[in-house]
Amino acid sequence: MSTTTTSETVHQRICPLCEACCGLEIRMADGKITSIRGDEKDVFSAGFICPKGVALKDLHEDPDRLRTPLIKRDGRFVEATWDEAFAEIDRRLPPLMAQHGKDAVAVTIGNPSAHKYGLLFYGVRLVKALGTRNIYTASTLDQMPKQLSNGLMFGHWLTMPVPDIERCDFLLILGANPMASNGSLWTVPDFRGKAKVMRARGGKLVVIDPRRTETADIADAHHFIRPGGDAFLLLGMVHTLFDENLVKLGRLAEHVVGVDALQAAVQGFAPETVAARCGIAAATIRDLARTLALTERAAVYGRIGTCVQSFGTLNSWLVDVLNVLTGHLDEPGGAMFAKAAAFAANTAGKSGSGRGIITGRWKSRVSGAPEVYGEFPMNGLAEEIETPGAGQVKALITIASNPVLSAPNGPRLSAALDSLEFMVSMDIYLNETSRHADVILPGVSPLQDTHYDTAFPIFSYRNHARYSRAIEATPEGQMPEWQSMLRLIGVVRGLGADADLTAIDDELINDDVRKQAGAHAEVVLQALAKHRGPERLLDLALRSGPYGDQFGLKPDGLNLDKLLAAPHGIDLGPLQPRIPEVLRTPSGKVELAPAMLLDDVKRAAADLARATDDIVIIGRRHVRSNNSWMHNLPLLAKGPNRCTALVHPSDAARLGLVDGRLARIRGKSGQPIEAEVQVSDEMMPGVISVPHGWGHDLADTRLGVAAVRPGANLNAVLDESLLDPLSGNAVLGGVPVSIAPVA
Hints:
The chain has 743 residues and is an alpha/beta fold. 31% of the residues lie in helices and 16% in strands.
């Protein structure tokens, strides 16, 4: 919504730059942004804002942000019209697919697509039209272990319990830094404020991390953990609950299966047995388990640090096993399930049971990696391009994705991209990945697009619904991403570069509605007719969702018009217990002991005696950085050098490293990197940390601000062969490296 005072207009807007999804108040005068601040009336974020929200002005005005398509001619990019760009795609992509098959085209999807619902909705439609099995997303660099454990335990990949922080009295955090992220797979703006209130009422916060993070700094206690050792800590805690008769399922007793099998599986993981492997004393492990069990309202939360390791899925499962065994799952103050207003599979269809999930329906051509959630591991993309034979990837479409920086051994992937026969990038920047493309299709500024958070209400700390109007109209000569997607769909279908986009969109929505509404399809389609594109899909989801008006059957229910009339959003209340209706497992129960995970416990047992590496590396995140392109925004880029190698003083002394001087870091594969040393006791001895997303020193990019201080690409020294074998997620932490001073 917009209001006007003299020459100034005031707009409410959801920030699309990270998972916190803060509500903003943006003021404009004469077509220019004059201020951005937190929207104090926003029902979800209540005025909170971080530097990324203010930096929307820099993104909107960034001269490096692409505004017209680019085509590569004789090795150089030249500006092109949209018709020229799609004519080039139509000339080259369909013949390639006809000759080599659908799987000759791969697609990569980056996490910015989760923040633009047009990209998300129509990206799914494009993938379906392509028919390829070669799908790679940022999920296998980040969160696939959690999604897999969700599916195995609760029946759907995105049935995600999150801490009910506003009623919690003991919160145990592993491998997460919500002071920097304001939640990850847990949307919780102003974590600092909520943690402060929790502690003021007597609640306790404990952080487990190989680095004393910003979150650890405000916690009641922090314990270093050996990178890759989380599974052993968690197994030791589960063992303690059984050993000391602390298991109390409470009301979930009739809704849980597998307790006995779980108890048998953890018998060999007493705290005294696992302490050396995880680096945490046995007495501390037992004390953590007791505190969790004996606190009335408590929760365990694990995030990216627990996912990006060899036991990522095992860790993700054990976090929720602890919540179940202590009676804290689905209870106020514990780990609870949000009920999203739209797009949540756990609010659709029959409640209380379902088909569950299946993995491994097909395998990757080269390494035989199993499909998980319809995807292959991003780590395997380079080999699929490099390896000749039937099914070799010959073409690539990247959607808001920069895997050259975000995936392990980016230099290998970069070289592989040069060998493709054709590549299209949908991106707002000419970056380290899109520089390899033959055609680049830019999107519009977030402020020129409407917005609804599709994914994040599914794991928010509180139920809500919010929608943002576009602040500016789409400029002449530019095109919203969803329309670019429709044109690509037309090309892939053989309809040509000038296909009727309205007809394609109508056909797609008609198919969706007929599957969902059956005999009532015509009535539903008529009710949706006032909206087009993603707004029409949103209205359908809202009206048929758990709070929806059901197309007139519940007149007080939600629809898009009601969100349009509520510029600060609609509060849908605190999280409520949802078991058993939230479950979609075939048994209708919480599956506490899936066979896949019990088998992985055996793998952990075999790893108990693993020797300690001399130096291992982990990543880190800063509040001013989420995706690599944010390094091109002046507001976020200013200040001290943040791409440093954090090193404990004892390691610096024995390795000859000097604060402020350069060090060279080498991994098993890939090229070495150089980073400025920052000596700090916030690191665990034997562990160094370099932030992710840097390395802006490659040729032929257009990232002027980022290039001034390019930083070092952490992922260049990581080993792309290291994976969590269950989920296919990359191992990005706890990887052995060497570090030495640069002469």
